[in-house]
Amino acid sequence: MAETEPDILFRRGLEAFNAGDYYDAHEYWEDLWSEYQLPDRSLIQGLIQMAVGCFHITNDNLNGARGLFGKALPKLEAHQPTGRGLDVTRLATFVRRALEQVNTIETGAEFDWSLVPELEVTEVKEV
User: For residue 34, is it within any domain?
Assistant: First the structure.
């Protein structure tokens, strides 16, 4: 089956996030979120907010990161354990740990980037 435009945007967001291009990941997912009325919109919004939180850390905007991680967490938690083939529980755990960390560091250079999970689709489900 051929990939649809929403599938392509979702996949490109995953690829950008995994490459550390958090702003680009946000852009792909933002297009998906704003252009399509998907039943899992809040999951997509959580991914967007997670990506922007990571982006803020790269710019030493720890207040912005705190705000975005705080907004992303309940959206991701609502979609546990999985959504779109992603281990959403793992993503929520990352966001929780990232939020704890940005509350204790003074600059983005202190952030432990090894916490950031690779986003892998382990199952494909219709949305």
Answer: yes
